[in-house]
């Protein structure tokens, strides 16, 4: 079921959510960089989206934490992935791979090692004292579409979890220490994603949301967990960023023009840290 009108929707698959009209945070980040790249990846139909190994494990962690009863309906665990055929592959290799994909029945495929890693990461979140305290009863993976009141752009968000007063988002990262994860938040636009979740839920429910708790879990053993509250100025900056992207998106839709980079020769220099003192030479 593709979302076609503003509202809050339950039971929408992740695939249908991403196929629905409107722009989400991942698109906002891309269109702020270059509308032409956004068009190619999301609207041209020419781009084949491939999920990275880290992204696949992160999605599995989400499912194990928030919807564990659905995990084995969504994932197939195997010893190892079969070789994906190419143009030089034999008929036998192609047939084995096709039979393997058919046996998966549409489920995502995880190796046993990936499943073990995702399970350890998920368990550390589930057993974290702060997670037990704030999770309680709420809603998981609901999909929301609303219209930005400033630009009129259709926007989408899909919070991991929310109740009547807060939103929880689970994030995986190489380093979950405060300074490193703060850079991670900015680099991946988690502040704008959080602002979109707050504004989308407020638009859909009428309840004012102004706080997001990020549960950051490290990707490497011992898979430590550190929760952070994102609010105040960080959310305001995220709101400014996503609204700027929404305005660009809406203008591109109206004009059917998706600009690339500047058609000019630009000056460039080395980054500041590259200039070292030569006093000791």
UniProtKB/TrEMBL annotation:
<protein>
    <submittedName>
        <fullName>Exodeoxyribonuclease 8</fullName>
    </submittedName>
</protein>
<dbReference type="Pfam" id="PF12684">
    <property type="entry name" value="DUF3799"/>
</dbReference>
<dbReference type="InterPro" id="IPR024432">
    <property type="entry name" value="Put_RecE_PDDEXK-like_dom"/>
</dbReference>
<feature type="domain" description="Putative exodeoxyribonuclease 8 PDDEXK-like">
    <location>
        <begin position="24"/>
        <end position="263"/>
    </location>
</feature>
<dbReference type="InterPro" id="IPR011604">
    <property type="entry name" value="PDDEXK-like_dom_sf"/>
</dbReference>
């Amino acid at each position: 079921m593709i979302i076609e009108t503003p509202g809050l929707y339950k039971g929408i698959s992740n695939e249908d959510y991403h196929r629905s009209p409107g722009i989400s945070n991942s698109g906002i980040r891309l269109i702020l960089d270059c509308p032409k790249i956004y068009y190619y990846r999301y609207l041209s139909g020419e781009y084949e989206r491939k999920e990275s190994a880290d992204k696949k494990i992160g999605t599995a962690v989400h499912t194990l934490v928030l919807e564990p009863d659905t995990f084995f309906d969504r994932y197939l665990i195997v010893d190892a992935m079969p070789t994906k055929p190419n143009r030089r592959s034999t008929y036998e290799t192609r047939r084995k791979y096709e039979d393997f994909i058919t046996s998966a029945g549409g489920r995502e495929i995880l190796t046993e090692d990936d499943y073990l890693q995702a399970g350890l990461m998920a368990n550390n979140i589930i057993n974290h004292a702060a997670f037990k305290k704030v999770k309680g009863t709420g809603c998981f993976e609901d999909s929301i579409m609303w219209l930005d009141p400033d630009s009129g752009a259709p926007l989408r968000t899909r919070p991991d979890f929310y109740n009547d007063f807060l939103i929880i988002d689970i994030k995986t990262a190489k380093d979950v220490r405060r300074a490193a994860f703060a850079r991670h938040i900015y680099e991946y636009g988690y502040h704008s994603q959080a602002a979109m979740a707050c504004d989308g839920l407020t638009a859909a429910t009428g309840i004012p949301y102004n706080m997001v708790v990020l549960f950051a879990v490290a990707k490497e053993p011992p898979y430590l967990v550190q929760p952070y509250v994102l609010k105040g100025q960080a959310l305001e900056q995220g709101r400014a960023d996503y609204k700027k992207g929404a305005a660009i998106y809406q203008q591109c839709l109206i004009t059917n023009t998706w600009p690339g980079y500047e058609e000019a020769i630009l000056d460039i220099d080395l980054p500041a840290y590259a200039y070292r003192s030569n006093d000791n030479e």
